[in-house]
Each structure stands twice: as C-alpha cells, then as structure tokens.
Design brief:
The protein folds into 3 domains: about 15-100, Rossmann fold, CATH 3.40.50.720; about 115-320, 3-Layer(aba) Sandwich (UDP-N-acetylmuramoyl-L-alanine:D-glutamate ligase); about 330-480, Mur ligase, C-terminal domain (Protein-Tyrosine Phosphatase, Chain A). With about 500 residues, it is an alpha/beta fold. The chain is built from 14 helices and 23 strands. It has helices spanning about 20-35, 50-55, 85-95, 100-110, 125-140, 210-220, 235-245, 295-310, 315-320, 350-360, 390, 415-425, 435-445, 465-480; strands spanning about 15, 35-40, 60, 75-80, 100, 115-120, 145-150, 155-160, 165-170, 175, 180, 190-195, 225-230, 250-255, 260-270, 270-280, 280-290, 330-335, 340-345, 370, 395-400, 430-435, 455. A 10-stranded mixed sheet has the order 8-7-9-6-12-13-14-15-16-17, with helices on both faces. Strands 18-19-23-20-21-22 form a 6-stranded mixed sheet, with helices on both faces. The chain has a 5-stranded parallel sheet with strand order 3-2-1-4-5, sandwiched between helices. The protein is about 30% helix and about 25% strand.
C-alpha cells in the first residue's frame, strides 16, 4: 500500500462535509459497513438519504462549522457542493487534516482491488446501474455497488460485496472545488456503459461539445481488454465511441446497427415485454416490470453487461423479473381513492418526456397530471426553455412550480414557468404556473378525481409535496368529500 493511502478495512474516524448528497450518503454507508466511525454535516437532508443514514446511526450535524470536525478526525471527505470558503474546509486546511473528494475516496478505498463496472451517460445511469448490481447479486457474484438511488431489492444505495466486481454510477458532474474534472474519471472503468449524451449541467459545461468531450475522456479510460457497451440509437454516443480507439465497443438499441437489438417491444400495465437479439438471433424474451422504451434500453444495456461477465440469459431474465426498482424512479408513493401518486427524479427535458411517456403507457386511458419543479442548476436557467414544451405534451394537465431559489439566478438567465405554461397552452395543453407547494396542494385537492394519475417530478424534496398530497387526499376521503371521477381531457 502506498504511503498515506487508506483501505476500506482500516478503522478510521472520518468526517463528511455535505453528507446528504446521494453519492456522499452512499459512500457513508459503505464506510460505516467497513467499520469506520463516520460523522457528517449538511445544510439540508431529506428522504430517502436522511432515513438511510439515521437507520445506520450516523448523526448529521446541521449546517457547516469548524467544531463539527472533532480533534481526532483522521480524514475529511468533501462533497462537490462544498465551496473553498466553507468553514469546515478552512478548518481542515488550518489543522492539516488529510482530505479527499468523494470520488477519490471511493477509488482509493473500494475500487483499487476490484473490477470496476462504471455506468455513465446523461440519462438512465441509476436504473441501468441498479439493474446490473441486482443481476450480478442474483447470480451469486456478490458485487459491491454505489448508486445514485436507493435500490428496493437491497433497501440501500451501496454495498461492499465480497466478489470481484464493483458497480458504480459514473456521474459527469465535477468532482470537488479543488478538482473540476468529472467524477467518473476516478473510477478505473474496466467495463463501461454509456447510455446517452445530452447537454446538461449548464452551470459547469459550456455547451454540448464540452459534454461530449467529457464522455470521450470516459470512453478512452476503458482498457483494450475491457468492454464499452454503448447506446447505438444515440448519434452522439456513436460519435464518441468512434473517438475511443481502445476497447471493443458493443452497441445496443432498437436500431439494426446494434449488436444487442431490442425487438417485438410491447408496453403494458405491468411494464413491458421485448426480445433481445444478438448477432442475428433471438437470445431471450424479457418480461420487465419497468415501463417505457427508455427502460427497455436500460435493461438491454444491463443484459449485455452481465452476459459478458458470464451470467446466463435465463439467470439475467429471472433477475430482471424480480427487480423492484429504485426509489424516486416512477415510484408509486401511495394510492388514495384510485388516485395514484408517483414520484420521479426527472428534470432534464429528455427525462421529463420519457418519464411522462412511460407513465402514459402504463396507465393508458387515465387522466395524467404532471407536476414539475425547476430545481437543478440547469433547469432553473433558461437554457432549455424552448425544449420543455415538447416534453410535456403527453400529459393531460400540467402544473409548473416556481423556480427553486430564483434569487440565485440572474433574471435574464432565469427559467420562466409562465413562458412554459403559455407555450403549452398554445399547443392545447391544460397548464398552469403555481408558485408555492401550498397553492399546488390546494389546486390538487379541489381537482384530483378517482382514477387520476399524479406524476410529481423533482430532483429534491419539493417541500414534502408527495407525503402532503397523500395526507390531503386521505383527509378529503375521510371527510366524505370525495370528488367524482373525471374523464381524460
């Protein structure tokens, strides 16, 4: 072991600044499972990560302060939401405590001795990554994993595992204030999956070309003896793969040019059915619990990955059929008076469009509400202002919440919910801009009717709207004020 390096199995006292991010919180679970003493701090924490950390006994200190780093702290792990003037960073530097970014810590402590399977791409990373982890686990390979979502099959977002493989969700966002490179460059990918490339993270990438360059750097990391499994339906992915002169590339998709091809796709209320073909022959027919063509792509990527690792088609098929999904990915949070409340992480226009299409496919013939909060650094800005209208067209009714912390965005660069609503109305969609969660709840209470599907999309807590709307509907039902069923408009 190199001087100054650590392993995941030497007990240390570790403090994590900004512990409640999905990546940081998942790493905290790994560290705790490895026997380390872990403390953490953050400005805000909400489910599911707050629940997971509380369950394993990690105390979360509110806000950031020098005294949060105890005198006997041996390592500080710094999240990418933390700035250089953060008081905990200043205290760490003043005292000379060793510090690492989250990707550095994961690489050093968990990936050095494992075969790393890294899933990258603008969309579909979490689902694809979690499918791979579950398939390998189901096959008895005991993989380690760290994923940006809570897997229902494990009730966790990470695990050490004891087998050869470690499955990682490879985020393209920057590593830390002291390392502006994408996180996935730290993950030593020997097997890579590239699900798709879109312009995103407008706060750190200057444009689409910069995003493509980042993914090209990822593809170039795959060694010649490795594998790069890439979405052949995505022109940008194919262009990036053409620039990667190292590992063999295996394309997947609906198109004829892919080695792993999806055929006979059929969506249903239970999910979807399709056949995976390879090299001109049918390999397996999948009955997937996941709805939507985008999830058929994610599933095929996972199938190709696991098949290449020696897992049989039958074992992969059985694992997929028993896959329970990821929290906040088309997650049904509750059903009241036949009104289905669904939580999803979608925020980019492509994600919004595909999520709405998948929910429409699963609940065909029912009135679909789409409630969306512009919360990410990209969606709060007007980069995608003209792209969002097309994303909502398959919804029957749309409510757009106010921009999250609008004061942080210059007015001339700020996203306009009112303009989106005007554009949707111009295309015949019943849409409203409603600023606050309280006002949204009042509107929903008065208008939701039995049989409606309520899809709520945000990458944050959205003011606890999911729990609050369920409570509101239960109170309405108990009070005998149940609205009459409404037809799809």
């Amino acid at each position: 072991m190199l001087p100054g390096r650590t392993t995941g199995f030497e007990s240390m006292k570790i403090h994590m600044s900004a512990i409640c991010g999905m990546g940081m919180g998942s790493l905290a679970q790994l560290l705790r499972a490895s026997g380390h003493e872990v403390s953490g701090s953050d400005a805000s924490c909400y489910p599911p990560m707050s629940t997971l950390l509380e369950r394993i006994g990690i105390e979360i200190k509110n806000g950031f302060a020098p005294e949060h780093i105890s005198e006997d702290t041996e390592l500080v792990i710094i999240g990418n939401a933390v700035r250089s003037d953060n008081p905990e960073v200043e205290e760490t530097l003043r005292r000379g405590v060793r510090y690492l970014s989250f990707p550095q810590a994961l690489e050093e402590m968990y990936l050095a001795e494992r075969t790393s399977v890294v899933v990258a791409g603008t969309h579909g990373k979490t689902t694809t990554c979690s499918l791979i982890a579950w398939i390998l686990h189901h096959a008895g390979l005991s993989p380690g994993f760290l994923i940006g979502g809570v897997l229902r099959n494990f009730d966790s977002s990470s695990a050490r595992g004891s087998g050869q493989y470690f499955v990682v969700e490879g985020d393209e966002y920057h590593t830390a204030f002291f390392d502006r490179a994408p996180k996935f460059l730290h993950y030593r990918p020997q097997i890579g999956v590239l699900t798709g490339i879109d312009f995103d993270h407008a706060d750190i990438f200057s444009g689409l070309a910069a995003c493509e360059d980042a993914f090209a750097r990822f593809a170039a990391l795959i060694p010649r003896h490795g594998r790069l499994i890439a979405c052949g339906d995505d022109l940008r992915v194919r262009e990036v793969c053409a620039r990667a002169s190292g590992s063999p590339v295996e394309l997947y998709g609906f198109g004829d040019g892919s080695r792993w091809r999806i055929a006979h796709y059929h969506g249903a209320g239970s999910g979807a059915s399709f056949t995976i073909r390879a090299d001109g022959r049918d390999i397996v027919t999948i009955d997937s619990p996941l709805a939507g063509r985008h999830n058929a792509l994610n599933t095929t990527a996972a199938f190709a990955t696991a098949y290449g690792l020696g897992v049989s088609p039958g074992s992969i098929r059985d694992a997929i059929m028993s896959y329970q999904g990821v929290m906040r990915r088309q997650e049904v949070r509750g059903v009241v008076d036949e009104i289905v409340v669904i939580d999803d992480f979608a925020h980019h226009p492509t994600e919004v469009r595909e999520t709405i299409a998948a929910v429409r496919e699963r609940y065909a013939g029912r009135r679909l509400w789409a409630v969306w909060e512009p919360r990410t650094n990209s969606s709060r800005r007007n980069f995608f202002q003209n792209d969002y209208p097309a994303a909502f067209l398959k919804a029957d009714r749309v409510i757009v919440a106010g921009v999250y912390h609008p004061e942080q965005i210059e007015p001339e660069r700020r996203f306009s919910p009112e303009k989106l609503v005007a554009d949707l109305r111009g295309r015949g969609v019943d849409a409203r801009a409603i600023e606050s969660v309280d006002a949204i709840l009042r509107a929903l209470e008065g208008e939701l009717t039995p049989g409606d599907i309520l899809l709520i999309m945000s990458n944050g807590s959205f003011g606890g709207i999911h729990e609050r709307v369920i409570e509101t509907l239960r109170a309405r039902s108990a009070g005998g004020n149940r609205a009459q069923p409404g037809a799809r408009s």
